[in-house]
Specification:
Blueprint lengths: L2 H7 L7 E5 L4 H12 L3 E6 L11 E4 L5 H15 L4 E4 L16 H29 L2 E6 L9 H25 L4 E8 L5 H14 L3 H11 L11 H12 L10 E4 L9
Parallel strand pairs: 1-2, 1-4, 2-3, 4-5, 5-6, 6-7
Helix pairs in contact: 2-8, 3-4, 4-5, 6-7
């Protein structure tokens, strides 16, 4: 059975409410589509309206680096849906200057942690009580392989925040597992997304080389990718779908790397 047929026939998320943050583009968009295909009612958030106005999801415009927007999102979801069964904390950004410590100021560091760590912490805190009351629910934190494989010249602030997210996710999973809520981290490697395209174009422009050369340089800097390519976001979404499904009912506290074999050590 191919993947498309599986998506059409497996409705094991029917009746579930899923929130996917950063759900209008890239990995988040692919996750939202996969959960909807499995029968979930999907809510998405992003800072801007989706390019595709026909997306069949409930959309909430919000900047989750702001406490007030996290509160507003949680209140709207609670009022309309009574809470969520699945929370995908996918928001994140690596939009901070490259070049190492000397290029990063306090504002850069603060924004990196607001977007990549504290947005998840606050949203979890707002929506977890309803999960705990039902003694069921799944939270997925979308991290990055860079959280354990820092590249100082281009991702110092981002990778520091993602590393903190990994530690927080593990601690939270230990706290809430006895009460029936699973918490799992997914760490994608390089995914072929718009954000990655912008990132590579910016690096290439600064280095005065082609995007193709910069892409190969990045592969080399990471030590190579055995599968020889970036992931399609759909592939990452498929892992997330499995982890929130009943098939993964005994999985919590883990950090799943999906990186084409890039991570260089046994783990």
């Amino acid at each position: 059975m191919n993947m498309n047929n599986q998506q059409q026939t497996e409705q094991n998320l029917a009746g579930k409410i899923a929130l996917v943050t950063g759900g209008t583009k890239g990995i988040g968009k692919a996750i939202a589509a996969r959960l909807a295909a499995a029968g979930a009612t999907v809510v998405i958030t992003a800072r801007n309206q989706p390019d595709d106005a026909e997306l069949p999801y409930h959309f909430i415009e919000a900047d989750l680096s702001l406490t007030k927007d996290v509160t507003r999102v949680a209140e709207e979801i609670t009022a309309q849906f009574g809470g969520v069964d699945i929370l995908i904390n996918n928001m994140g950004a690596n939009t901070f200057p490259g070049g190492g410590f000397s290029t990063l100021n306090d504002e850069h560091w603060d924004q990196a942690f607001q977007v990549n760590l504290f947005s998840s912490v606050r949203l979890d805190k707002a929506l977890l009580p309803q999960m705990l009351a039902r003694k069921s629910g799944v939270i997925i934190h979308i991290s990055s392989t860079s959280g354990q494989f820092p590249i100082w010249e281009s991702t110092m602030a981002y990778t520091s925040a993602k590393s903190a997210l990994n530690a927080y996710s593990k601690a939270l999973s230990d706290e809430v597992a006895p009460q029936g809520v699973r918490v799992v981290t997914v760490s994608p490697g390089l995914n072929k997304t718009e954000a990655m395209s912008y990132f590579l174009n910016d690096l290439a422009k600064k280095a005065g080389i082609s995007v193709e050369e910069m892409t190969q340089n990045l592969f080399n800097r990471l030590g190579g990718i055995p599968l020889g390519r970036m992931a399609d976001p759909v592939e990452t979404a498929e892992l997330v779908y499995f982890l929130v499904s009943p098939k993964a009912s005994y999985i919590t506290g883990a950090n799943y790397h999906i990186d084409g074999g890039n991570y260089p050590v046994v783990r």
